[in-house]
Amino acid sequence: MSTAIFNLFPNLEPFHHDTHYEDLFLNQNWVLVNGITNKKAVYIFKDENTLHIIENENTSETSWCIDVKNTFSIETEDGKTTVKAYFKDDDILVLNRIQTDDCAVFINEDRCSETLNTLEDVQQFLHNKYKGKAASLISDHEFYYIEKAEEFGPFTVAQLSEKVENKKISIFCFVRDVNEHNYNKRLRIRDLIREL
Questions:
Q1: How would DSSP label each residue in 40-78?
Q2: How many other CB atoms sit within 10 Å of the CB of residue 49?
Q3: pTM confidence score
């Protein structure tokens, strides 16, 4: 699989029929992110191995099938291709062409509050999705801070924010995650507060 895609979407989960097929995969409007700057393409995988591809209000019908576990065969106007399917959460599907780095990334438009027509729409969707997740993770997580060469903690971001508001510590103090061993990331309390 392409390292760039894997870095962009870590922790991809291989397609699992029992988990993904009925609820997350079938009959969903999967917007193809690749090439969205040129044209919008929506893929709808139907039961009975039918694939509808909608481009510029035109719908074409082709076929697809599950070969083994998370390996699919898809027939398009470019010919037949075999891909491995992966999910990132419930709304991002990655199809990786077998034995290549070629990947197609899809977003489930049915799970978006806005339609995805442009690259900017996709970027905004991803930004909102992961900013919300990051804020949730940060607010529940604990950090140490260092002030005048002495370390304190661990504290949640809410606790650190309260200390800053009460003028007990500086917003410019360096912090480190409880799982890190040093302050090399140069993260400050103000950086954590900004993310909430």
A1: -EEEEEEGGGEEEEEETTEEEEEEEEEEETTEEEEEETT
A2: 15
A3: 0.69
Residues 6+ apart with CB under 8 A from 93: 25, 30, 85, 86, 87, 105, 106, 107, 108
Distance in angstroms (rounded) separating the CA atoms of residues 120 and 162: 36
DSSP string, 79-100: EEEEEEEEEETTTEEEEEETTS
Q: How many CA atoms lie within 13 A of 193 on its CB side?
A: 16
**Each residue's pLDDT tens digit, 96-105:** 998 888 889 9
Residues 114-161 have pLDDT tens digits of 899 999 999 988 888 877 666 666 777 899 999 999 999 999 988 999
Q: Considering the chain, what is the average pLDDT of its residues?
A: 87
Which residue's entry shows tokens 């040129």?
38
Report which residue type is found at 104. A
Q: What is the DSSP letter of 29?
A: -
Residue 73 in tokens? 């065969």
Residue whose tokens read 């035109």: 58
Going from the C-alpha of 4 to that of each of 1, 88, 103, 105, the distances in angstroms are 9, 15, 10, 12
Q: Considering only residues 1 and 177, tell me which one the structure prediction assigns the higher pLDDT.
A: 177
